[in-house]
Amino acid sequence: MVIRGGTAAEIADSVRALVDRGELIPGQSLPSVRALAEQLGVNRNTAVAAYRTLARSGVVVSRGRGGTRIARRAPLAQEGFAAAGALRDLGTGNPDPRLIPDLAPGLAAAAGRPVLYGEPVIDPDLEQWARDWMSPDVPGDPAALHITLTSGAVDAVERLLTQALMRDDAVALEDPCFLASIQIAHLGGYRAIPVPVDSEGMTVAGLRAALEKGVRAVVCTPRAQNPTGASLSARRAAELREVLADHPYVLVIQDDYYSFLSRSPFHSLIGPGHRRWALLRSVSKFVGPDMCLAVTATDPETAGRLALRLSPGTTWVSHLLQRITHAVMTDPDALALIERAGAHYAARNHAFADRLTAQGLPVAAGDGMSLWVPVPAPAREIAERLRRRGWLVRTGDEFRLEPGAEPSGHLRLTVHDLEEDAAAALAADLAEAVAASAG
Length: 439
Fold this sequence. Notes:
Keywords: DNA-binding, Pyridoxal phosphate, Transcription, Transcription regulation. By secondary structure, this protein is α/β, with parallel strands linked by helices. It has 15 helices and 15 strands. The strands form 4 sheets. Strands 4-11-10-9-8-5-6-7 form an 8-stranded mixed beta sheet, with helices on both faces. Strands 12-15-14 form a 3-stranded antiparallel beta sheet, covered by helices on one side. A two-stranded antiparallel ribbon has the order 1-2.
């Protein structure tokens, strides 16, 4: 196996060819950046660029200082997808389609004059609505607020990290963590530094330790953290802002994806003196997953970098989507339905938590679309017992940044769409599965 090439593109093509011919196999280690540069007689940055290209295309995975390996083809866990078959899938994290506003009026409103190349990338009506939505929750002068649109929250996080990080840079992620954030770090070649999450959100000690390890970015979910449902308390947010005050140039990304549905107040960990920050909010959970649109408010420097990536044909968010979103989010009936949806998800989660507590499995319902359930045995064992009873669930192991850690003791259940009989049956089956594992 010989890697060849004098440019980043040539080196990447050489590795891909070796993989295609089977000379490099999944899991096999590649030379370090320094060793590869010396072997090929190229600049170290050329080798870095080649590996970054391969990582972004999924050919290799970076373990930071643990080296770079050919990616295994086993599928990564995905939000909203599981091969349930005949099982009742409780791992989707999906909204109830009956509680998503009707888009038909918005579709009619979206029809109009075609938008051409060279025009503003943000529809004026949506931009004003977005400013009104974001300005109360960001630092600085609202008149100077910078707004960017992306194709959903995951797209926003990926692009924010891409413009701030290089391969092997460290990024602080919540642990347990949203599946898409794990994949972004995995494919981008970033070193994911886990920050534990408790009932009040990201922990102070965990963030301080991550900053001491040199993270250049922090991704935090201020409300309805996925998978735990935790939301930042006012006290915790103030403590985190104090820790971050000594690191004003670390990019802080707040992914407030649940926004309109949340039952918790928004508390920001971005202080008034912080220099690199982003607050993003998607409409997917309440206008529907197919509405791939997120609003991102940022500092001027970050906004400028993101704007360079918003060119027609690459990341231009369709004005049709923008107009539909604006029509829905300014319709009183749609807003009333979204408010009922948030109340419904919270009520169903609390009701099921009460069922489990009555079965001897104490659960505190957080915010969000799903329920984070502690179990007194390895979650995978409980999940297998539930599978035999017809239920497909996600275990906390899927959401961990360090898969080799001790087995998770949590399940994530999406229960808001269960009928009463099904909810009672699931609670009883879960209690029996726990008892059987204990026995």
